[in-house]
Every structure is written in C-alpha cells, then in structure tokens.
Amino acid sequence: MATEARDTTAMVLETRKSGIEVVGDIPWGTHFCFFYDTKEDLVDTLISYCKAGLENEEFCLWVVAEPLTIEEAIDALRGAVPDIDRYLADSSIEIVSACDWYFQGGTFDLKRVTAGWHERLARASARGYAGVRVTGDTAWIEKKDWRDFCEYEEGLNEAVANQHLAVLCTYPLAACGAVEILDVVRTHQFALARRHQTWDVIETAGHKQAKAEIKRLNEELEQRVAERTSQLMLASEALREAQTELAHVNRVTMMGQLAASIAHEINQPVAAAVTNAHAALRWLDAEPPDLYETRQAVAAIVKDGYRVGEIINRIRSLIKGAPSRNDPLDVNEPILEVIALIRSEVQRNGVSLLTRLAEGLPLVQGDRIELQQVILNLIVNAVEAMSGAGEGARELLISTEKGASNAVLVAVRDSGSGLDPKGLDRLFDAFYTTKSNGMGMGLSICRSIIEAHGGRVWATANVPQGAVFTFTLPGDEDCTT
Ligand SMILES: Nc1ncnc2c1ncn2[C@@H]1O[C@H](COP(=O)(O)OP(=O)(O)OP(=O)(O)O)[C@@H](O)[C@H]1O
Ligand SMILES: [Mg+2]
User: Fold this and answer.
1) Which of 20, 141, 410, 418 is the most core-located residue (most Cβ within 10 A)?
2) Does ligand 1 lie within 6 Å of residue 432's CB atom?
3) Beta carbon of 155 within 6 Å of any ligand 1 atom
C-alpha cells in the first residue's frame, strides 16, 4: 500500500514542460490532441513542443504527414532550436513519415504502432533519456480507416498511462466534421484547437478531475514535506540541546567526583594564607614591629588569595553551561589547568603523574573548557583503570607533540587494567561502560568534542600494560606558541 502510494506520488510529481503556452506543464502519461487550421499553426506548435522535449533530455519522435515533409520539419527546427544539429547527430530526435510509421507492411495495425512507441521508450530509457515525447499527424487518415484509428486512440490512453511517454496527436480541422471532432475529443485527455491566432482548450470531465487530483496530491505532498522538514529541524535542535546538556552533566558529575581533590587544592593556599596571617600578626607585635617581614607575609597572602580565586573560576566555568568558543590556544594550557584541579585526586590513588609537554606547538582553534573536559575525562578514566588494577606501578603520563601536517597530538598513557578486547569497537559509544557507577558518557563526549574541533581520538594498548588514549587537533597554519 505504502509503495503504491509512493509510486503514484512520484508519477504525479514528475511533470514536464509541454512547450505549449496554453497547456503549461504536463505529467508523463499525457495523451492529448491538437486541431490545426493552417500548416503554420501546426509547425509553430510542434516546434515548441519538440524544443521543450529536446531541451529537457527527452527523446522526441515526430511523425509527419503530407502536406508537411520531413525536410520542412527539419528546416523549421533549425530556425528555432539552437542545438538542433547536435540533437540530430546523436539521434535525440527522429522524424519519420506517417506512411512509414503507421503503414509499415501496407496496413494499419494498431498493436504494431503502439508497440512501436513502447519500443522507442525502452531504447530511449536505456540511452539515459528521461522519457519519450511523441507527436503524430493524422492528415493521411481516410474515412475507411477512421473507426480503426479511433480504437487505436482509445487504446493509447491506457498504453501511455504510467509510462514516461507523452503523446500529442494532430488533426487538420479541415478534414474533421462534427462527428470526427467528437470522436477525437472523447478519445484524448484534452484537446487544443488553434484558429485565426487564437486558442481553444477543451477538457474532458475525467481529465479535469485528474488534474484536480494531481494538484491536490502535489499540495498534500508539499505539506507533508514541509511538516517532515520542520519535525526534523526540531528533532535535530532537540538533539543538539540534549548533547550540550549531557556534556554539561558530565562536567558537573566529574566536579562532584573530584570534590575532595578540589577541596584539597583550595585548602592548601587557604591554610598557607592563615599561617602567613599569623606570622604577620607576630611581626607586627614585635618591638619594634618588623614591617619588612610583615609586608612579605601579606604579599604571600595576596598571592594565595589569587590562587584560590583562579581555582574557583576554573571550576565555575567548567560547571557553567557556557556556549562553545573558538579561540587560538596552546593545548598545553588546558592540560596544566586540569592537572591543577586533579593533582591530589591522582596522588590519593597512589598514581604518579608525569608530563612531557612539547614547547612551540602550533596553536589550535578551539574551546578551552571543552578541551579541558576531554583531558579531564581521559585522566579520570586512566586513574580509575589504575585504581582497579593490582599492585603494579601506577603511572600516568600526559604528553603533547607536533604531529604530521601541523597537527597537535595529545596522549594520555596509563599502566592500568588495559582495554577489554571485547568492548574495543564500542569504547567511544554513548552508554558503553564496564563500571558499576559509570554512565559511559565520558569517551563519547570526548569524541564529539574532538571531532567538532576537526580532530580524531583513538585508543591503543600501552606496553607492557595499560592503555593510551590519543587525540589530534589541527594546528593553525604558521602559528606557533
Ligand atoms: N584508560 C582506560 N583503560 C581501560 N579501559 C578504559 C579506559 N578508559 C575507558 N575505558 C573503558 O571504556 C569505557 C567507557 O569509558 P567512558 O569514559 O565513556 O565511560 P565510563 O568511564 O564508564 O563512565 P563515565 O565516564 O560516564 O563516568 C569504560 O567503562 C572502560 O571500560
Ligand atoms: Mg569515564
């Protein structure tokens, strides 16, 4: 049912330019007729009909009847279609005489003629044309052939339905009486007539209905497309928001995990400040007061105060859901900032932290907080992998170096439990975790941040044990720290 509906809609949608102004666009499967007064009326109309077909990648077949000759048809085309020689040379248009087309073998055989259209269609489709546009003149019909021809015309409606075929049958008005005109109009979807420079369009009720149905289907389809587009836009907007929110949750969660470590980092300068304040009081109480020593102690208090302020600012910006920025930065800086927050957490787990940060690295374009988040996730994972592992040495090495094509390489290397071969291809998937209290978001967030920065992240085994997580970031051209 669904496929059927789709096919009909596709058929309906594919309209073609008829080239005839009063007709406008027509769907494939159109079978219409044209009553003409003079040879000029006929030629003018067919030239624009064929021109529209040729210029829209259709194969054209024009069956001419006396008094019009093939040569006259070609001459007329030459005057109107700029590329006609190319179209003739590559057989995009074929002009044949009614005698050859309808009377092959001396008799009119409606089955053979209809099969002829289909055969041209198959050939044209195989050659890559969009479809076949046909026109045939009936000036040759004699009274005795009329009945047969009417039967053929009637059968043609069915033969062209759902095919990439359009058929225009032309009738000289002079040869048609009222009865003939009625027969012709009845057997076509609609009729055109051109007399004294004016047009008449006669539509059958069925055709009117079909056109209305096409219009309705098209409108419905357009509306469905518009609805789907806005749904998709809303969904992708919601997805983006959810991703930002998840990344934010990940940062806040990590800050929670690191609370003890952070408290320690803050406590140290605060304790130092208190000690210095006591010392300052003592220097002031001395006889005489030692102002030099007092000043030294107070200066140290100011320095510690700034240090606490910095740490708090860093935590605040990590917790804040600030929009992404794009600044040139030295990747070593976010690394050092993260280390300042996490140092005591690392120590508490009996891990020794080493850094090997290259100098003069190319600057990278990026968001400082997001890069801190990546490094923090990788370090927390490394520490977790080592605290679970047995007694071996617990070593964490963070290194940076310049990679190929001006890229910057950052590696976080641990001596922990190592990567589980079963989960290797899912490592960076959202919600993949082997930890009882893990969310499985860390690495997936790392990957989306790094990829949004134009880089790559991957994991390998460390020797003799543990894992290495490496990421690259494209460096700015000619821009080093
Ligand atoms: N350094 C590592 N050594 C060994 N396995 C690791 C390492 N880092 C990550 N993994 C594996 O990858 C999984 C996914 O890591 P990820 O950071 O995405 O989630 P998580 O740490 O389990 O949870 P979350 O980070 O959301 O708290 C981990 O559960 C672990 O199995
Ligand atoms: Mg993690």
Assistant:
1) 410
2) yes
3) no
pLDDT digits (tens, 9 = 90+) for 252-289: 888 888 888 888 889 989 999 999 999 999 999 999 99
* Single-letter amino acid, residue 374: V
List, for residues 99-128, the tens digit of each pLDDT value.
888 887 677 788 888 888 899 999 999 999
Q: Is 439 in the pocket of ligand 1 (CB under 6 A)?
A: yes
CATH number for region 2-203: 3.40.50.300
Its CATH class, for the domain covering 326-480, is alpha beta
What is the CA(440)–ligand 2 centre distance, in A? 6
Centre of ligand 1 to C-alpha 381, Å, is 5
Please report which ligand is nearest the Cα atom of 254.
Answer: 1
- Return all residues near 87 (Cβ < 8 A) that are at least 6 apart: 54, 81, 93
- pTM (predicted TM-score): 0.60
Q: Which residue out of 351, 374, 379, 381 has the highest number of ligand 1 atoms within 8 Å of its CB and is therefore the one to mutate?
A: 381
Is the C-beta atom of 440 inside 6 A of ligand 1?
A: yes
In sequence order, the 6+-apart residues with CB closer than 8 A to the CB of 318 are 251, 254, 255, 369, 372, 373, 376
Q: Which atom of ligand 1 is nearest to the CA of 440?
A: 19
Q: Give the number of residues written for the chain.
A: 481
pLDDT tens digits, one per residue of 141-195:
888 888 888 888 988 888 888 899 999 999 999 888 888 898 999 899 999 999 8
Name the CA dihedral angle for 259, 265, 271, 276, rounded to a multiple of 10 degrees: -160
